[in-house]
Amino acid sequence: MAFFDLVDFDNHEQVVFCSDEASGLKAIIAVHSTKLGAAVGGCRMWDYASDEEALVDVLRLSKGMTYKNAMAGLTMGGGKSVIIGDAKTLKSDELFKAFGRALNGLGGRYLSAEDVNITTADIAIANTETPYVTGTEGKSGNPAPFTALGTFLGIKASAKHKLGRDDLKGLTVAVQGLGSVGFYLCEHLHKAGANLVVNDINKEALDKAQRQFNAEVVGLNDIYDVDCDIYAPCALGATINDSTIDRIKAKIVAGCANNQLAEPRHDQALVERGILYAPDYVINAGGIINVSFEEDYSSDKATRKVEEIYDTLIDVFTKADSEQKPTGQVADAIAREIIARGGK
């Protein structure tokens, strides 16, 4: 593999491959940029089909964190880490201690928090071997409720811009994925009067959504065909691709998943179909915003900062309209400008 020629390699400052035979740890840490500060981003654990798939994922995710932190106005760079393996069978104290030692080897250039299949308890174990973690219990804690809040506010901003609606009452939202963030998001949407159509691989989560939110459950591949106002991708990335994009009936794509577009060109493809896209790293920044208040933590201050996502998205949408460009391209340009200015 010609690593430096990979499409998703974006002049990353550092990519570290980590392994520990005793615990079974196989991980990749990607530091995309430290121009705005130490790189910060979560760790996810996933049973990737191949090491190359894991590498591409961590490269894309770490770049997204650079742009996310810039757009959120945070003095943080962008990084991400992935642990390769089945979280249901491979997790152990020794594995996360080994991961903590790997983090420690970077000397603070990258701080890890939680992401898919990683909990605050897992991070606490890594914390016994390194100070270079964040999103810890007793401080900022679980970022999922804040990610969900920011996504909900981003959906409201999208509905305001596209539909001229100040509320979501009666709108149908198709939520793909009922993980921690997706379920919290459904709570907000239900309270706002939205009708929910959901899917997930977890039957227990689906049953709970049916009971609590009167949600309609559809098959994993059927979510793209739902007649809805808003499609909210909240599972893994790349669900907007050549196979799905013509099936989406929604007027808005706005969800908490990272890397929702399989390729950059799908940004323009959504425009051509008359669909408003809320750039993923802008709408889902609530969790990292909360983490940014780790020291001297204040939930109220974190919440007020998360609420800024609404106005940030309105600015992106307005600029995209005036420049007649896709929203993702506009957000990328703004983020790069912020980084070039050193965050000022």
Model description:
The chain has 344 residues and is an alpha/beta fold. It folds into two domains: 125 residues, 3-Layer(aba) Sandwich (Rossmann fold); 164 residues, Rossmann fold (3-Layer(aba) Sandwich). It is 42% helix and 17% strand. The chain contains 13 helices and eleven strands. The strands form two sheets. A six-stranded parallel β-sheet has the order 8-7-6-9-10-11, sandwiched between helices. Strands 1-2-4-3-5 form a five-stranded mixed β-sheet, with helices on both faces. Helix 5 crosses helix 6, helix 5 packs parallel to helix 12 and helix 12 crosses helix 13.
Task: Please tag this protein with its features.
Rossmann fold, 344 residues, alpha/beta, 2 domains, globular
Question: Outline of this structure?
Answer:
With 344 residues, this protein is of the alpha/beta class. 42% of the residues lie in helices and 17% in strands. It is built from 13 helices and eleven strands.
What's the number of structural domains?
Answer: 2
Strand content: 15-25%
Q: Give the distance, in angstroms, between the N- and C-terminal Cα atoms.
A: 38 Å
Topology-level CATH name of the largest domain: Rossmann fold
CATH A-level architecture of the largest domain = 3-Layer(aba) Sandwich
Question: Which whole number gives the mean pLDDT?
Answer: 95
Q: CATH homologous superfamily name of the largest domain?
A: NAD(P)-binding Rossmann-like Domain
Query: Which geometry do the CA atoms define?
Result: globular
Number of helical elements: 13
> Roughly what percent helix?
40-55%
Structural class: alpha/beta
The main sheet orders its strands as 8-7-6-9-10-11
Q: What is the string of SSEs from the N terminus onward?
A: EEEHEHHEHHEHEHEEEHEHHHHH
Radius of gyration, in Å, reads 19 Å
